[in-house]
Design brief:
The protein is of the alpha+beta class. It has 2 domains: 84 residues, no CATH class; 121 residues, no CATH class. The chain contains 6 helices and 11 strands. The strands form 3 sheets. The protein has a 5-stranded antiparallel sheet with strand order 4-3-2-1-5. It has a 4-stranded mixed sheet with strand order 6-7-8-9. Strands 10-11 form a two-stranded antiparallel ribbon. Helix 1 runs antiparallel to helix 2.
Protein backbone atom coordinates (compact mmCIF):
# COMPACT_ATOMS: atom_id res chain seq x y z
CA UNK A 1 0.00 0.00 0.00
CA UNK A 2 1.17 3.53 -0.67
CA UNK A 3 1.86 5.86 2.24
CA UNK A 4 1.74 9.64 2.11
CA UNK A 5 4.86 11.46 3.30
CA UNK A 6 3.01 13.14 6.14
CA UNK A 7 1.81 9.76 7.42
CA UNK A 8 5.32 8.46 8.06
CA UNK A 9 7.28 9.26 11.19
CA UNK A 10 10.56 7.39 11.77
CA UNK A 11 10.25 5.15 14.82
CA UNK A 12 13.19 4.23 17.05
CA UNK A 13 11.53 1.06 18.31
CA UNK A 14 12.44 -1.01 15.25
CA UNK A 15 15.86 -2.64 15.78
CA UNK A 16 18.69 -2.01 13.34
CA UNK A 17 18.94 -5.72 12.50
CA UNK A 18 15.62 -7.09 11.33
CA UNK A 19 15.59 -10.42 9.57
CA UNK A 20 13.39 -12.20 7.07
CA UNK A 21 10.77 -14.49 8.62
CA UNK A 22 10.37 -12.15 11.58
CA UNK A 23 6.80 -11.37 12.57
CA UNK A 24 5.24 -7.92 12.98
CA UNK A 25 2.14 -7.02 14.97
CA UNK A 26 0.42 -3.83 13.84
CA UNK A 27 -1.35 -1.25 15.95
CA UNK A 28 -5.05 -0.52 15.44
CA UNK A 29 -4.13 2.65 13.55
CA UNK A 30 -1.74 0.65 11.42
CA UNK A 31 -4.45 -1.81 10.45
CA UNK A 32 -6.80 1.06 9.68
CA UNK A 33 -4.25 2.48 7.25
CA UNK A 34 -3.72 -0.94 5.65
CA UNK A 35 -7.46 -1.44 5.15
CA UNK A 36 -7.85 2.06 3.70
CA UNK A 37 -5.77 1.02 0.66
CA UNK A 38 -7.56 -0.01 -2.57
CA UNK A 39 -7.56 -3.81 -2.16
CA UNK A 40 -9.76 -6.18 -4.14
CA UNK A 41 -12.61 -7.86 -2.26
CA UNK A 42 -10.78 -11.12 -1.55
CA UNK A 43 -7.68 -9.41 -0.22
CA UNK A 44 -9.75 -7.02 1.87
CA UNK A 45 -11.66 -9.90 3.50
CA UNK A 46 -8.41 -11.62 4.40
CA UNK A 47 -6.80 -8.44 5.77
CA UNK A 48 -9.96 -7.57 7.72
CA UNK A 49 -9.80 -10.99 9.42
CA UNK A 50 -6.13 -10.42 10.26
CA UNK A 51 -6.94 -6.99 11.69
CA UNK A 52 -9.90 -8.27 13.70
CA UNK A 53 -7.89 -11.11 15.27
CA UNK A 54 -4.65 -9.15 15.64
CA UNK A 55 -2.73 -11.71 13.59
CA UNK A 56 0.85 -11.01 12.51
CA UNK A 57 2.44 -10.18 9.19
CA UNK A 58 5.89 -11.37 8.19
CA UNK A 59 9.00 -9.37 7.31
CA UNK A 60 9.96 -10.05 3.69
CA UNK A 61 12.95 -9.05 1.62
CA UNK A 62 13.05 -5.26 1.44
CA UNK A 63 13.09 -4.12 -2.23
CA UNK A 64 15.52 -1.42 -3.30
CA UNK A 65 12.60 0.70 -4.51
CA UNK A 66 11.02 0.79 -1.03
CA UNK A 67 11.02 4.12 0.80
CA UNK A 68 13.64 4.30 3.53
CA UNK A 69 10.97 4.91 6.18
CA UNK A 70 8.73 1.98 5.20
CA UNK A 71 8.78 -1.72 6.03
CA UNK A 72 7.83 -4.39 3.47
CA UNK A 73 5.64 -7.15 4.90
CA UNK A 74 3.80 -10.16 3.59
CA UNK A 75 0.72 -12.22 4.33
CA UNK A 76 0.57 -15.74 2.87
CA UNK A 77 -3.17 -16.33 3.02
CA UNK A 78 -4.65 -19.68 4.15
CA UNK A 79 -6.64 -22.08 2.02
CA UNK A 80 -9.95 -20.24 2.46
CA UNK A 81 -8.42 -17.24 0.65
CA UNK A 82 -6.92 -19.37 -2.15
CA UNK A 83 -3.43 -19.23 -0.59
CA UNK A 84 -2.81 -15.79 -2.05
CA UNK A 85 0.39 -13.96 -1.16
CA UNK A 86 -0.34 -10.37 -0.21
CA UNK A 87 2.41 -7.76 -0.14
CA UNK A 88 2.18 -4.45 1.69
CA UNK A 89 4.34 -1.75 3.23
CA UNK A 90 3.79 0.03 6.53
CA UNK A 91 5.32 2.92 8.39
CA UNK A 92 7.44 2.01 11.42
CA UNK A 93 5.04 4.01 13.60
CA UNK A 94 2.36 1.41 12.82
CA UNK A 95 4.39 -1.46 14.27
CA UNK A 96 3.12 -2.39 17.71
CA UNK A 97 5.86 -4.95 18.39
CA UNK A 98 8.00 -7.60 16.75
CA UNK A 99 7.40 -11.29 17.23
CA UNK A 100 8.75 -14.64 16.07
CA UNK A 101 7.31 -17.82 14.58
CA UNK A 102 6.35 -20.58 17.06
CA UNK A 103 9.03 -22.78 18.59
CA UNK A 104 9.33 -26.17 16.92
CA UNK A 105 7.51 -28.02 19.71
CA UNK A 106 4.37 -25.93 19.07
CA UNK A 107 3.60 -27.82 15.84
CA UNK A 108 3.80 -31.30 17.38
CA UNK A 109 0.00 -31.58 17.41
CA UNK A 110 -0.07 -31.03 13.63
CA UNK A 111 2.19 -33.99 12.86
CA UNK A 112 1.22 -37.61 12.16
CA UNK A 113 1.14 -39.55 15.41
CA UNK A 114 3.84 -41.92 14.17
CA UNK A 115 6.26 -38.99 13.75
CA UNK A 116 5.76 -37.35 17.14
CA UNK A 117 8.44 -39.23 19.11
CA UNK A 118 11.13 -38.62 16.49
CA UNK A 119 10.12 -34.96 16.24
CA UNK A 120 10.35 -34.43 19.98
CA UNK A 121 13.74 -36.11 20.06
CA UNK A 122 15.03 -33.91 17.22
CA UNK A 123 13.75 -30.70 18.83
CA UNK A 124 15.34 -31.63 22.16
CA UNK A 125 18.65 -32.55 20.54
CA UNK A 126 18.76 -29.28 18.59
CA UNK A 127 18.09 -27.37 21.82
CA UNK A 128 20.97 -29.16 23.54
CA UNK A 129 23.16 -28.02 20.64
CA UNK A 130 22.05 -24.44 21.37
CA UNK A 131 19.71 -24.17 18.38
CA UNK A 132 16.18 -23.13 19.35
CA UNK A 133 14.38 -24.10 16.16
CA UNK A 134 11.23 -22.31 15.05
CA UNK A 135 8.73 -23.38 12.41
CA UNK A 136 7.52 -21.11 9.61
CA UNK A 137 5.74 -21.90 6.34
CA UNK A 138 2.40 -23.71 6.39
CA UNK A 139 2.97 -25.50 9.71
CA UNK A 140 4.11 -22.31 11.41
CA UNK A 141 1.21 -20.24 10.13
CA UNK A 142 -1.34 -22.89 11.09
CA UNK A 143 0.09 -23.08 14.61
CA UNK A 144 -0.10 -19.28 14.86
CA UNK A 145 -3.54 -18.71 13.41
CA UNK A 146 -5.41 -22.04 13.84
CA UNK A 147 -6.47 -21.57 10.21
CA UNK A 148 -6.01 -24.34 7.59
CA UNK A 149 -2.61 -24.04 5.91
CA UNK A 150 -1.13 -27.54 6.03
CA UNK A 151 -1.86 -29.96 3.19
CA UNK A 152 -0.52 -33.34 2.13
CA UNK A 153 2.50 -31.89 0.34
CA UNK A 154 3.42 -29.27 2.97
CA UNK A 155 7.09 -29.15 3.97
CA UNK A 156 8.03 -28.70 7.60
CA UNK A 157 10.07 -25.48 7.37
CA UNK A 158 12.55 -24.91 10.19
CA UNK A 159 14.21 -21.60 11.03
CA UNK A 160 17.50 -22.66 12.62
CA UNK A 161 19.45 -19.91 14.43
CA UNK A 162 23.16 -20.74 14.50
CA UNK A 163 26.15 -18.78 15.72
CA UNK A 164 28.91 -20.12 13.47
CA UNK A 165 29.66 -22.55 10.62
CA UNK A 166 30.67 -25.33 13.01
CA UNK A 167 27.31 -25.15 14.76
CA UNK A 168 25.54 -25.06 11.39
CA UNK A 169 27.36 -28.27 10.43
CA UNK A 170 26.27 -29.97 13.65
CA UNK A 171 22.65 -28.84 13.27
CA UNK A 172 22.54 -30.24 9.74
CA UNK A 173 24.10 -33.50 10.95
CA UNK A 174 21.43 -33.83 13.65
CA UNK A 175 18.60 -33.27 11.17
CA UNK A 176 20.04 -35.81 8.77
CA UNK A 177 20.49 -38.40 11.51
CA UNK A 178 16.90 -38.43 12.80
CA UNK A 179 14.86 -41.50 11.72
CA UNK A 180 12.14 -39.48 10.03
CA UNK A 181 9.08 -40.56 8.07
CA UNK A 182 6.97 -37.40 8.51
CA UNK A 183 6.65 -34.31 6.29
CA UNK A 184 9.80 -33.31 4.42
CA UNK A 185 11.99 -31.19 6.70
CA UNK A 186 13.13 -28.05 4.93
CA UNK A 187 14.11 -24.55 6.04
CA UNK A 188 17.01 -22.23 6.63
CA UNK A 189 20.03 -21.71 8.84
CA UNK A 190 19.93 -18.18 10.25
CA UNK A 191 23.31 -16.64 11.06
CA UNK A 192 23.85 -13.75 13.52
CA UNK A 193 24.19 -11.12 10.76
CA UNK A 194 20.75 -12.04 9.36
CA UNK A 195 22.09 -14.15 6.49
CA UNK A 196 19.89 -17.18 5.80
CA UNK A 197 20.98 -20.28 3.88
CA UNK A 198 18.86 -23.33 3.12
CA UNK A 199 20.24 -26.10 5.31
CA UNK A 200 20.24 -28.55 2.41
CA UNK A 201 22.30 -26.13 0.28
CA UNK A 202 24.69 -25.61 3.20
CA UNK A 203 25.12 -29.38 3.50
CA UNK A 204 25.93 -29.74 -0.20
CA UNK A 205 28.34 -26.79 -0.09
CA UNK A 206 30.20 -28.07 2.98
CA UNK A 207 30.44 -31.53 1.43
CA UNK A 208 31.94 -30.09 -1.76
CA UNK A 209 28.93 -30.90 -3.94
CA UNK A 210 28.14 -27.23 -4.69
CA UNK A 211 30.59 -24.38 -5.41
CA UNK A 212 28.35 -21.69 -3.85
CA UNK A 213 25.21 -21.22 -1.80
CA UNK A 214 22.30 -18.84 -2.18
CA UNK A 215 22.47 -16.40 0.74
CA UNK A 216 19.26 -14.52 1.52
CA UNK A 217 19.42 -11.26 3.43
CA UNK A 218 16.89 -8.62 4.33
CA UNK A 219 17.91 -6.45 1.39
CA UNK A 220 19.11 -8.86 -1.22
CA UNK A 221 20.00 -12.35 -2.42
CA UNK A 222 23.38 -13.47 -3.75
CA UNK A 223 25.37 -16.58 -4.59
CA UNK A 224 28.34 -16.67 -2.22
CA UNK A 225 31.14 -18.83 -0.89
CA UNK A 226 30.81 -18.48 2.90
CA UNK A 227 34.02 -18.62 4.89
Amino acid sequence: MALMDDEVRPAARLPALLHRQQLVRLSADGWARVLAAPWDDGARLCLALWAEQGLPLVVTRQPASLAADALALGLPAPARFRRRRLALAVAPQDVLFLDEFPPAEAVTRLLPRASVAAWRALVATLALEGCRARVYGGFGWQALTRLPYVHADSDLDLLLPVSAPAQADEVVRLIMSVPWDGPRIDGELLFPDGAAIAWREWRDYRQGRAPQVLVKRLRGVALERPA
